[in-house]
Task: structure prediction
Amino acid sequence: MSKGLTDKQERFAQLVVKYGNQSKAYREAYDVKEGTKDESIIQKASEYANKVDIRSRIEILRSEEKQEHKIDREFIINGYLQIINDTNHVFELADLKDADSDASKRFYKLKELTSNADKIRAMENLAKMLGMNAPKKIDVNITSFKTNWGGS
Result:
């Protein structure tokens, strides 16, 4: 347990990392009564997760988990790229007119393992990870503004 955290706060931090869901972690760590409004749970979970000591503990636990499982940004990106490449390879194999038996076997094996939906999902997730879906920022400077409030 981390210094300064209560048992429930430590459990909450661990469950946030385990589930990736603050509300679910809050429900379990604090034994929320049935019938409690979802809005209340969401608000409380967010408040707890944003407390400096709890947020710090969550970050430490996430870092430990990444190191333990050897999962980092590069690992995830490479996994998505592999899905995209496998799907591209399936399409290439499908276009071969005079494919030998090895190429045919690879085609059917890859076809079972991948789909176009996998490729699209991988590309969408990569775009999100790399910030490519961020809205464009448009600076607007208004130097004057006319209204006809007040009647004339």
